[in-house]
Amino acid sequence: MSRILIKGGFVIDPGRYNGLGDVLIENGKIAAVGKSVPNAKGNDTAVIDASGKHVFPGFIDLHVHFREPGYEYKETIESGAASAVAGGFTSVCCMPNTNPINDNQAVTEFILDRARAAGTARVFPVGAITKGSEGKELAEIGDLYKAGCVAISDDGRPVMNSNVMRRAMEYARAFDLPVVDHCEDLHLSEGGCLNEGQVSTELGLAGIPRAAEDVMVARNVALAELTGARLHLAHLSTVGSVRTVRDAKARGVKVTAEACPHHFTLTEEAARGYDTHAKMNPPLRTWEDVHAVKEGLRDGTIDAIATDHAPHAVQDKQQDFAAAPFGVVGLETALPLTLALVEEGVLPLEQAIEKLTSAPARAFGLPYGTLAVGAAADVAIVDLQRGWEVDPTKFKSRSRNTPFTGWKMKGQVVVTIVDGRVVFDAQA
Ligand code: DOR
């Protein structure tokens, strides 16, 4: 019997436990959580002193890009999973825009094999909606589901043909698979590389209007209503999309949504100076949008916080703003940026942790993100007070493309446990 006792931390298991306590892990499962869990059965127990620390369920990220197969120089499954656990994430869902695209069982199985070999974070593949993510012919959704995909999405190449999307939703419904959409009307956004507005005009760069997101959010909600499918909307970034999702939820549509730390922390102003680390899709917007995203997180319109961790190599980002790829890494900065919302009074701590744990678990139907007795022992132990400065050369990720270099952060992961095994230890 292997046993770990996490002693004397402040335990928050959203909706279940919020107070000082111990967490006992036996054979990879949560065995007890409580004020004082007796360590009765012999001295073969590893004790982790968590006094002065917080103990949370391991975080779940519904949206990451690990670049294997195809772009291993940016990130491998192993380096991505190491980055995840360094950020407190014990489960991540990886998007299908690899090369080849994850539109078939063989790629899904390959990803799962590599993740098993890495042996750190749990990696859940998201399969493509259409073959080659070309938006034309549906992928073998049933096969993807059987191989282990937890959702389907064409990610940054969203399905433009509404009838194809309708059929995908009908198909996915048969397996109760969430359909994830990166909401972007590719005709409206064509050629754009940052938010359309004051900054794009001043920089002389083509913009992406907020309407490119808003119209697709509205379309997808209408199709979810039509089909009864589970719809999950990725990285909401605009006033309009938050409003549409709020309204859809009020009408009982089965829709969930996520927001990314960069979208609730930064605005388009970060792109001044043509800094390609401020280039991502959807783009950074305005303060009005940032406030709407925060309000959506606060009132439950936005269920989950996800990173859209999108690693790109230095040489990829060292190009003209228009030519550089979209995307920023996020796994190792998501926690302190989320905690900043707590400091600001946007969310109570328990609700912030819920958006990293039980809420994303519910959105994708994953049996994790909880410290319930009998659940897999996935745990993040965090020092909420510890300050640190972002130095991308220290990232476990293979890429360093963050807009937060030099930022002073508060809150650091000290230990991450997956399945009852310590997979990250900041002291080590
Ligand atoms: O910023 C982004 N990066 N948005 C996307 O849609 C794709 C992603 C990537 O794969 O780099």
Q: Quick recap of the structure?
A:
The chain has 14 helices and 18 strands. The protein is an alpha/beta fold. (4S)-2,6-dioxohexahydropyrimidine-4-carboxylic acid (DOR) binds at residues 65, 97, 155-156, 182, 280-281, 308, 310, 325-327.
Description of the molecule:
Helix 8 packs parallel to helix 10 (287-299). Strand 17 (408-418) and strand 18 (421-425) form a beta hairpin. The protein has helices at 77-86, 105-118, 141-147, 162-174, 186-189, 198-203, 210-227, 239-250, 261-265, 287-299, 314-317, 334-343, 349-354, 358-364, and strands at residues 3-13, 17-26, 29-34, 45-49, 54-57, 59-64, 89-94, 122-127, 151-152, 179-181, 194-195, 207-208, 231-233, 255-259, 304-305, 379-389, 408-418, 421-425. It contains 14 helices and 18 strands. The mean pLDDT is 97. It is an alpha/beta fold and 428 residues long. Strands 1, 2, 3, 4, 5, 16, 17 and 18 form an 8-stranded mixed sheet that branches. Strands 6-7-8-9 form a 4-stranded parallel sheet, sandwiched between helices. Strands 10-13-14-15 form a 4-stranded parallel sheet. It binds (4S)-2,6-dioxohexahydropyrimidine-4-carboxylic acid (DOR). The site of (4S)-2,6-dioxohexahydropyrimidine-4-carboxylic acid (DOR) has 12 residues, from loops.
